Structure formats: structure tokens, C-alpha cells
Amino acid sequence: MAIYNLGSINLDHLYRVDHFVRPGETLASTDFQTLLGGKGANQSIALGRAGARVHHIGAISRNDDWVLNEMRASGVDTDRVAQLDGASGHAIIQLDRQAENAIILYPGANHRLTREQIESSLADAGPDDWLLMQHETNGLADAIELARQKGLSIAFNPAPMVAEAARPLIRDVDLLIVNEVEAMDLTGTRDIKAAESALTRDYPQLRILLTLGREGVVYIGPEGREQQLAFQVDAVDTTAAGDTFIGYCLAALAEGLPPLEAMASGGAAAALCVTRLGAAQSIPRRDEVDAFLQSHNPTR
Hints:
It is built from 10 helices and 13 strands. By secondary structure, the protein is an alpha/beta fold. A 9-stranded mixed beta sheet has the order 5-4-1-8-9-10-11-12-13, sandwiched between helices. Strands 3-2-6-7 form a 4-stranded mixed beta sheet. The longest helix has 15 residues, at 241-255. Catalyzes the phosphorylation of ribose at O-5 in a reaction requiring ATP and magnesium. The resulting D-ribose-5-phosphate can then be used either for sythesis of nucleotides, histidine, and tryptophan, or as a component of the pentose phosphate pathway.
């Protein structure tokens, strides 16, 4: 079993600030770093550190070999990452004192994938494998079509959310992973209960993972509705929390673990992640997550 992740690779330019910059304001930052990020790269690294066999499909600048080295060090196969002329995708991230973030994205090479690259990347995939996608690259419809032809299971995390673009894709996926804001945007509702009802009504074929921040995560599928409560920790940076949860949870589901155990693994990994600064570098190893699960209970 393998997981093929069609996903973004970004250079994250991280600025620590007292507050998010306001229109017309020039604000001095207290720290600056350039780090590996992007939802796709983060989720691949989380999958790799969780012990999954993960192949990343994506694109970067020819000048950014260090990115591939970091991904490989976490167990990610990067043979399907194209190196192109031009800039890699990158993000400008403001991180405030409350550990909240505000992000500006430039897609760069992430929007230059071709159907031929995706088809070649999935050449060895089969019915026991998964395709994972986010919403930071092009080529999603092609990837779904090609994955369906090969019998792969498809997981979709439509972030950043563009509801009009995401809706046509969702009918052809098996597992939808969204947070509460994304769920409301996708369904055009104003509260999470209405969003949950709309998702189960409009997409009855879906298994759904609905992440609720401090309230934990809800799974909806053939097994019914189950909720895993959040673990209580002191957060310093939430940048990669969602991506870390997705990587660990999907790795567990792909291994055949029941949803509640998979959500606990993802929740523990995310809890560890938010106690550390940065995106990819904050994602914990499998042994750290296992130790955390043995010593912590979710918030009641």
C-alpha cells in the first residue's frame, strides 16, 4: 500500500510579529526564518514520519534542491517532483503572540503540473493505494480521473477553500477532510451543525473528517458518527497542525485502523506539532506520537 500525494511545495517565509500588519502600517518583526512548507509537503512529511510509504507528486524551482533533501530525510519519495525554471511556490506568514497565523501564498511551480507528469507519476499505482490532494496545485481533475481508472481511493483536503472549484471534484472522492470554516464555505451555511447536515445530505457517498480545532475532530462514514476530543497543550504555532493531523490520520486509516484510533493518532501528532515553531520542522516522529498517546488523554 502506498499513498500518492499530489501537493504543493512551498518556501515559508515566517515573520514573528506582535500583531498582524494593518493596512498602511509598516511593522517590524521580531524574528524571521525561511522554512520548508506548503500543505502538500507538510502532509507528505507527516505521512512519512508516521511510517507510511508516500510518493510526492509536485514541482519546484531547479534552484531549491535542499527542499527535496529535507523531504527525503522524512521518508518521502521525491522521484515524482519535477524541477522547473522559475520560482517555487512560497508563502509569507505572519505569526502573532497568540500563535495565530495570517498567510499570503504565491503558487509558482505548484501551478505548472501537467497531465503527463501526473499520469507518469501514477503509473505504478494500484487498487490498494491512495491518492491524496489539497487545493494548492493544478491538475486535480486529471488526477482524480487517472486515479479512478486505476481503482485508487481518493482523499481530498480542499484547502485553501474555493467552494465553486471544489464542489465538482468532491463527488468523485472517497474521503473529504475539512475544517469548520471550510465546511461552512463549501455548503454555504453559517454554523457547523448545518454544514455537517448539508455535507451528509449532498454527498452521501463520502467519508468525512471534520476538524474542529480545540473541539477535536468528527468522523462520519459507514461506521456512523464518531468524535475524538482534542488533546490539551500550550500552543506556540498552529501553522502545520491541520496538515500533521491529516498525514497521521490518513496513514492510520490506510493501515486499516478504525476511525477513532486513526483520529487519536492524528490528534496526538497535531498536539505535539503546535508546541513547536515552524511548519515541516514541527511535525513529530512516530515514536514521539506513540509516547504522547500513552501519557495523555484528550480534553474532556
